Amino acid sequence: MNFTRRHLTFAASLLLLGAAATASADTLDTIKQRKKVLIAVDIGAPPYGFLDSDAKQAGSDVEAARMLAKDLGVELEIVPVSGPNRVPFLLSKKADLVMASFSITDERKKVIDFSEPYGVVPIVVAGPKAATLKGFADLSGKNVAVTRGTTSDQELSRGIKEVSGVTVVRYEDDATTNTAVATGQQDYMAAAPSVVPAVKKANPARDIDIKFVMKSFPYGVGLRKDDAALKSWVDGWVKTNLKNGRFNEIYKRHFGMSLPEEMLK
User: Fold this and answer.
1) Range of the domain at 15
2) Using CA atoms in the order 125, 127, 129, 130, what is the torsion angle rounded to 10 degrees?
3) Solute-binding protein family 3/N-terminal domain spans which residues (predicted)?
4) Is 186 found in the same domain as 136?
5) Residues 76-100 pLDDT 10s
6) Does residue 76 sit in the same domain as residue 184?
7) How many domains does the chain have?
């Protein structure tokens, strides 16, 4: 009797797992039947997502999400998210996909899937436009502003380990770092490229430009695991729009630089 019950319980578990996998695999059909795709975007993370002067949603991820919906032939509903709730919104099915500067990491891949990368989060060193600065070695003898404990701080520290004469000035938040460069306390900074326009806007006389990329972190479209049909479609869509230059066009408009050459092949 116990043997039969165990087998019945096991069989029921398999049925439940099969039903869950089928439900997941049907997401693409669900989107098409609904005639709308729900895409999570962080609207508070310029230049990926923000509200423009007319209070309309804008940014590189917003444009990419609109392009995806159009190519899929459905309406778009943007689901606003923040960094911490991107995964929960996806797993709870509040969103079909996540396009929110979603860096591809091994830790995240344990619980969700990612498409092929469609962009990179670069960490750069910026400085006066007239200055020649091609790599970490050229920072010798210079002061560099950075926000303490950030990825920029980590990559700068790693890059200058063997370079003598570099003074790193660490600030407690991005706003203070930006102000230090805008007011001329430091000429160089390590940061995300999105902050460079903010420094220029604060003080147009400070002609700050991106000098070199320290490191780039690829980001992709977040999907629920085992959503094979949707992942296959999104992967193909990403590859097509990298090759035809549409993603690079969006990226250059918002970041002022091109995607890495190897992504465009």
Assistant:
1) 2-118+220-264
2) -110
3) 36-258
4) yes
5) 999 999 888 999 999 999 999 999 9
6) no
7) 2
